[in-house]
Amino acid sequence: MPEFDYAQNGVYFLTICTQNRAQVLSIVSVGAASGRQPQVQLTGVGEIVAQTLEEIPLRYSHVSVDHYVIMPDHVHLLLRVERKSGRPLAAPTVSHIVNQWKGAVTRRLGKAIWQKGFYDHIVRDVYDYQVRWQYMEENPQRWLQKTEQLERT
Length: 153
Prior knowledge:
4-stranded antiparallel beta sheet; alpha+beta
């Protein structure tokens, strides 16, 4: 939303995709021991993505990553911005935080893997938060279903 202040307190549901939707972050498969439950196995690139996600609160004390899922070609996360005293004049925006995170991944890998930009949704209430959380939890299952449909055609 162009008029929204993305530096203010709130929770943001974000989707960040790899360049050309390259499936370099993880592999989603059916776990043998878990029946039909999907298993997300991070690649080496995915491990670096996870590490840098978990470091965001170290760089920004007022930011936390509530939940995330690393899919083969994209990442979903719930990013919480929570300043105790409101918004300082030079507070970083969500866009700044995401771009810094993408840059950290790029530096560690020695190459760029991200699509320009990202999708964001401002979480409006507890119900909206729960819907986004559930969406992330179910994303591996949807990925498997989509993959199976493509294999059948």
